[in-house]
């Protein structure tokens, strides 16, 4: 158990910068999920913490100690890999015991720790099997067991659920969360799946092109995304982003498509009349109703209790809505935008604009 | 009117039977071509010296098997007074084992270095190894012989084995195999705290079992069949290998060759490679079916 601190961590591969300086403070026992599209540098960040890559500049501190120049083995971290990385010629027991054996723990202690971890994960009956005789979910449990027996300062998860089928993923997700809470071990979890991120993390780091676009709790990020990238990335289906201009006085925005006036209920925004804005509204906040946007619906995806509608505005901007019920058809439709669920972003930089800014 | 399903099924059955017949005919022909010389050798080793000397080619076993084999084992060819097959077999066995084990050990470690470590001129070293593939023993035999003479290694087992002990082919094969070992194993081992030597012994070596077994078979037979190098290197009878000794038994003079003893010796020379193939094959198949990754 320990804290983790990243100070302005930068990384370049040759001339290609991958991380542009990431700062992060992880509290003891906290579960941090690093989420982002592929190529955003999230795995690199994790590997730098593990010591598998060396940062170009900046500093990694685990429990307040600088990790500069320390080998992965000396950092007291345990890692769970996407493809499990279980040694195929060793039994489950040997796989879990290997790290302890190398550290020279006495046999009875190894036995006790492995049995404990196996019990915790419900894989006690598999200890004598080889990895190839296990299903994907069982393999991932063993990989987690291998991390747990080490009793490390830090758990590092590198997309551990990506190779599993959807049902198992949900199951194991909950299990990882329970285990992590119970063991209270500080964890970093890398994923590209925003649902995984939302459900697992105490806090999320949303990465975009080598920068941490936002570091906050899942609900904060969902309610107040820091920029249009985060807004589009978190939430499914993605938030609708519509270009608009600021009305003189800053009390409302005029949509470019159709000229609809949308007042800001939480207060006026600063800026000259005509300032370029991007307005965000989540598909689930759109309502059926008069006096709103005219949408041409092109595709309806019924999900049972609700439906996802894909359509286009008059100027061709795509729009997605999630509406209750299943009785929708293609064609013209009017959708109301409740002003209290609007997100306002700068049209140029994409940064969030709060009331009074 | 389309044929009934019974007729179609009957036609298929007939075709299968015909195909089976042709397949087996081809196989039988192949077996005949391969086995016949060996059969002749076996039969020849059971007759007395005059039968083959007269130019007969007997197809049925004779009665002289025991004395022929006893003579070959203990005394060698009578006229030429060659080295006893027993001694030659031991020499060949030691040489082939040392070559096979040595080649595997050296190529395993060099491939490990080339694949898993980053060091300056890594690819240069790899290509240097690779290029030696193009230089067979025969090409470098004179300089190698000179070196061995200077080192005083003629007429020694070391002199027989050392020049043959490095193998570019095996290094290349192991390199290709090591490249298929996922990086995650290396990283998991790093995090587990396994250093390079532990990783080699605990992970790489067990994963290479199958490859090692396969290469051992090939390299053992390669070592066993060495002819030119032992012929040059050794003139001490007590170090004679069986492949060389066998050819020396066939005289070039007017005197009659003792074909019965020669053939008995040839049968002896056959046995160890056959044993290696038969024994290792079982292991090898087991390794193959157990393979994973």
UniProtKB/TrEMBL annotation, chain A:
The record ties this protein, via Pfam families, to: ABC_tran, OB_MalK
Alphabetically sorted, this entry's keywords are: ATP-binding, Cell inner membrane, Cell membrane, Membrane, Nucleotide-binding, Sugar transport, Translocase, Transport
Q: InterPro entries in the record, alphabetically?
A: AAA+_ATPase, ABC_transporter-like_ATP-bd, ABC_transporter-like_CS, ABC_transpr_MalK-like, ABC_transpr_MalK/UgpC-like, Mo/tungstate-bd_C_term_dom, NA-bd_OB-fold, OB_MalK-like
Gene3D superfamilies, sorted: 2.40.50.100, Nucleic acid-binding proteins, P-loop containing nucleotide triphosphate hydrolases
**Entries under CDD domains matching the protein:** ABC_MalK_N
Q: Where is the ABC transporter domain?
A: 4-234
- Please list the GO terms describing molecular function: ATP binding
Looking up PANTHER family in the UniProt record yields: MALTODEXTRIN IMPORT ATP-BINDING PROTEIN MSMX (PTHR43875), SN-GLYCEROL-3-PHOSPHATE IMPORT ATP-BINDING PROTEIN UGPC (PTHR43875:SF12)
What family classification does the UniProt entry report for this protein?
Belongs to the ABC transporter superfamily.
Entry protein name: Sn-glycerol-3-phosphate ABC transporter ATP-binding protein UgpC
Q: Which gene encodes it?
A: ugpC
Automatic annotation (TrEMBL), chain B:
CDD domains per the UniProt record, alphabetical: TM_PBP2
PROSITE patterns from the UniProt entry: ABC_TM1
- UniProt xrefs under Pfam families: BPD_transp_1
**InterPro entries from the entry?**
MetI-like, MetI-like_sf
Keyword annotations from UniProtKB, A to Z: Cell inner membrane, Cell membrane, Membrane, Transmembrane, Transmembrane helix, Transport
What are the transmembrane regions?
21-40, 93-117, 124-145, 157-178, 199-224, 259-280
Q: Which SUPFAM superfamilies does this UniProt record tie to the protein?
A: MetI-like
State its location(s). Cell inner membrane; Cell membrane
Q: How does it sit in the membrane?
A: Multi-pass membrane protein
Q: Where is the ABC transmembrane type-1 domain?
A: 89-280
| Role, per record | Part of the ABC transporter complex UgpBAEC involved in sn-glycerol-3-phosphate (G3P) import. Probably responsible for the translocation of the substrate across the membrane.
Question: What does the subunit section of this Swiss-Prot or TrEMBL entry state?
Answer: The complex is composed of two ATP-binding proteins (UgpC), two transmembrane proteins (UgpA and UgpE) and a solute-binding protein (UgpB).
Q: Which NCBIfam families match?
A: PRK10973.1 (NF008210)
Describe the family membership recorded for this protein in Swiss-Prot or TrEMBL. Belongs to the binding-protein-dependent transport system permease family.
Q: What is this protein called?
A: sn-glycerol-3-phosphate transport system permease protein UgpE
Identify the species of origin: Roseococcus pinisoli
């Amino acid at each position: 158990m320990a804290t983790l601190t990243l100070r302005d961590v930068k990384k370049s591969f040759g001339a290609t910068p991958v991380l542009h300086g990431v700062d992060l403070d992880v509290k003891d026992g906290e579960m941090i999920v690093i989420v982002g599209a592929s190529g955003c540098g999230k795995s690199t960040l994790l590997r730098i913490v593990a010591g598998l890559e060396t940062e170009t500049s900046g500093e990694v501190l685990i429990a307040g100690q600088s990790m500069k120049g320390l080998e992965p083995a000396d950092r007291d971290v345990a890692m769970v890999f996407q493809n499990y990385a279980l040694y195929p010629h060793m039994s489950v027991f040997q796989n879990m015991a290997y790290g302890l054996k190398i550290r020279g723990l006495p046999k009875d202690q190894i036995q006790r720790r492995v049995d404990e971890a196996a019990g915790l994960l419900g894989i006690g009956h598999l200890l004598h099997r080889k990895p190839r005789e296990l299903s994907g979910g069982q393999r991932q449990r063993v990989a987690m067991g291998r991390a747990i027996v080490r009793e490390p300062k830090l758990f590092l998860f590198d997309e551990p659920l990506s190779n599993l089928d959807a049902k198992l993923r949900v199951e194991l997700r909950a299990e990882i969360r329970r285990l992590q809470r119970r063991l209270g071990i500080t964890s970093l979890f890398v994923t590209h799946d925003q649902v995984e991120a939302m459900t697992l993390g105490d806090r999320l780091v949303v990465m975009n092109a080598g920068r941490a676009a936002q570091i906050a709790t899942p609900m904060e990020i969902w309610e107040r995304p820091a920029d249009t990238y985060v807004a589009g990335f978190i939430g499914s289906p993605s938030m609708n982003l519509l270009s608009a201009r600021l009305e003189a006085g800053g009390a409302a925005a005029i949509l470019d498509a159709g000229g609809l006036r949308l007042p800001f209920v939480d207060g006026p925004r600063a800026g000259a009349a005509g300032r370029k804005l991007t307005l965000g509204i989540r598909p689930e906040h759109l309502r059926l109703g008069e006096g709103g946007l005219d949408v041409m619906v092109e595709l309806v995806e019924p999900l049972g209790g609700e439906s996802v509608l894909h359509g286009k505005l008059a100027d061709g901007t795509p729009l997605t809505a999630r509406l209750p019920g299943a009785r929708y058809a293609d064609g013209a439709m009017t959708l109301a935008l409740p002003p209290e669920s609007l997100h306002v972003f700068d049209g140029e930089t994409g940064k969030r604009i709060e009331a009074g800014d | 009117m389309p044929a009934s399903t019974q007729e179609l099924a009957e036609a298929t059955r007939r075709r299968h039977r015909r195909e089976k017949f042709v397949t087996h005919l081809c196989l039988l022909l192949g077996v005949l071509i391969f086995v016949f010389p060996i059969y002749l050798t076996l039969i020849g080793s059971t007759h007395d010296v005059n039968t083959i000397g007269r130019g007969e080619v007997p197809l049925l076993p004779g009665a002289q098997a025991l004395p022929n084999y006893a003579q070959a084992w203990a005394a060698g060819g009578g006229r030429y007074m060659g080295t006893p097959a027993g001694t030659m077999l031991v020499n060949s066995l030691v040489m082939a084992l040392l070559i096979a084990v040595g080649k595997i050990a050296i190529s395993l470690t060099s491939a490990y270095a080339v694949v898993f470590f980053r060091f300056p001129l890594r690819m240069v070293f790899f290509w240097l190894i690779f290029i030696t593939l193009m230089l067979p023993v025969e090409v470098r035999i004179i300089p190698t012989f000179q070196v061995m003479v200077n080192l005083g290694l003629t007429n020694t087992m070391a002199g027989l084995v050392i020049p043959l002990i490095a193998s570019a082919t095996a290094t290349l094969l192991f390199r290709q195999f090591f490249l298929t070992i996922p990086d995650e194993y290396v990283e998991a081992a790093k995090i587990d705290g396994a250093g390079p030597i532990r990783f080699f012994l605990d992970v790489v070596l067990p994963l290479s079992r199958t490859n090692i077994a396969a290469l051992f078979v090939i390299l053992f037979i390669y070592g066993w069949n060495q002819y030119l190098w032992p012929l040059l290197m050794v003139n001490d009878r007590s170090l004679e290998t069986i492949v060389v000794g066998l050819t020396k038994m066939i005289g070039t003079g007017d005197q009659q060759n003792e074909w019965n003893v020669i053939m008995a010796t040839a049968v002896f020379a056959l046995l160890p490679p056959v044993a290696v193939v038969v024994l290792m094959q079982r292991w090898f198949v087991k390794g193959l079916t157990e393979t994973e990754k």
